Amino acid sequence: MELTTGKTSMILTTDRLQLQALTAPQLKRYLDDAPGLELELSLRLSRVVVTERVRRAIGMKLEKMKAADPARLAWYSYWLIVLPDKGFGAGLIGFKG
Question: Which one, 24, 33, 49, 66, has least CB within 10 Å?
Answer without folding.
Answer: 66
